[in-house]
Amino acid sequence: MKNRVPIQNGSDNYLPERRITGIGASPRKNGNSDILTKHILNGAKGSGVAAEDVHLRDYQFQPCIGCEKCRKDKICTGLNDGMHLLYPKIIDSQGLVLISPTHNYNVTAWMKAFIDRLYCFYIFDNNCPRGWSSRLAGQGRKAVLAAVCEQETKKDMGFTLEAMRLPLEALGYEITGELTVFKVFDRGEIKGEKEILAKASKLGANLAESLR
């Protein structure tokens, strides 16, 4: 730890820990997304990597307000809320898991607000349109994504996976696996889907093994 440089200083020498943070965006406690998160992270733990689950519903935080203070301060300083409890977890974890149920063809409002608040990790130039890079890039960061949908098709799932994948890739994460789950809605219904849960555990194990 003593040799690591805080990423808030914009150092390219920062190395995250070989650990995984799982971010669940469901408003429903002990629902299908929570169960899926648990299985993915247990798969990672079985491969010897520390893993922690975080549920966005447990944190009070606002969406990005576009104040642009982070361009100078290298972290969000325009808002003082629960995201400042989450930033250290993101910064220190080499692995990330994002899980969201589908709400109206997209991620939940919690996940959208969370992703937008990662804007503070970008570096922009002063051209128009602005060129950009990410202060999280080049650090071996990797991620797994999962989406849960009551309906039957990817069309009905809409942009749920893309809304998580594209921002993470832009931030410098390599996506090592994705899982789509259809036709589950009732709380805990996914417990009966043994094949899906086995896939979730395998995704977690593969993510853990991919970390340096």
| Largest sheet, strands/sense/barrel | 5 strands, parallel
- Please state the average pLDDT score: 92
SSE pattern: EHEHHEHEEEHHEH
The secondary structure category is alpha/beta
Determine Rg (CA atoms, Å): 17 Å
Global outline:
globular
Helix percent band: 25-40%
Please give the order of strands in the largest beta sheet.
Answer: 2-1-3-6-7
Q: With helices defined by DSSP (H or I, 4 residues minimum), what is the helix count?
A: 7
CATH topology: Rossmann fold
By DSSP, the count of extended strands is: 7
Given this structure, which CATH class is correct? Answer: Alpha Beta
Q: What does it look like?
A:
It is a single chain. This protein is of the alpha/beta class. It has a single domain (20-210), classed as Rossmann fold, CATH 3.40.50.360. The protein is built from seven helices and seven strands. A five-stranded parallel beta sheet has the order 2-1-3-6-7, sandwiched between helices. The protein has a two-stranded antiparallel sheet with strand order 4-5. Strand 1, helix 1 and strand 2 form a beta-alpha-beta unit. The radius of gyration is 17 Å and the shape is globular. It starts with 16 loop residues before the first strand and ends with a helix.
Please sum up the structure shown.
The protein is built from seven helices and seven strands. Helices cover 33% and strands 22% of the residues.
Features:
7 strands, 33% helix, 5-stranded parallel sheet, alpha/beta, 212 residues, Rossmann fold, disordered N terminus, two-stranded antiparallel sheet
